[in-house]
Write a structure and sequence with these properties.
The chain is 39% helix and 12% strand. The protein is an alpha/beta fold and 271 residues long. It has one domain: TIM Barrel. The protein starts with a strand and ends with a helix. 44% of the residues are buried.
Length: 271
Amino acid sequence: MRLSLTAWSLPQCSLQEAANISKALGIGALDVGLFYRSALDKELVLKDPEAAAAGLEGLGVDIPNYYHLFGEGLEGQNLALPGTLAQNEKDLAQVLRFADAAGIPTVFTLPGVVNAGQSRDDAAKVSAESLKALLAVAEDYAANICIEPHVHSWAESPDRVLKLIEQTGIKLALDYSHFACLGYRQDEIDVLAPHALHVHLRQARMGVLQAKMAEGTLNFPAMFGALRGAGYSGALAIENVHQAYMNTLFDDVLTETILMRDCFKDWEKGL
């Protein structure tokens, strides 16, 4: 396992500045996405994937993951919304062309939300059918796709996520904080570790999606051990953020990033 840093953790930094900070912290890897000053040009990714990939040359860091939203925000063109699949299939083909050209091994998106007129089960059914089709698209590319179950999605419990995995074979961008925030114990979340393709790290507790390192309930050495025991060998992306979503505006992102880095490095020394 190795560390990465999410570019959207540093909303006022350009992509190159975020990459430089990752290097300065001894991390040397950066997840990229569509947010804030470091945002990739989504229109370019979809229209000219190779040109978008060329724009990442020279950053000087590994890029283990790209976070793609098919529409705008959590709701737009989401995977549980009927009528979006054909466009999402076309978009995903371009996204994966971009990822392959840029040497990015994994792409994650979101599972979708409960849309107007739907029940949670309705949303789950549409999302599962969408994911089966998108996984078929991905078979033609080197990059692998995964989803991040999150607060406010239809997939807010480990049991629902496991059922989706059983139905589709989809892998996860696993973020324990979303489940901890909803009140699940860490050992209840550990069942998802064998299905992780990418991992996000930040401290949390019940009702709080992002907590200071000393004020959350997640036991990171135990988490690292669970991931290793499940055979995970990918990136652990530190994802402390400064944004309005879920009241995550009040932490010193740089301090929390360093504390998480040191937590992992201290655990890693015992291997």
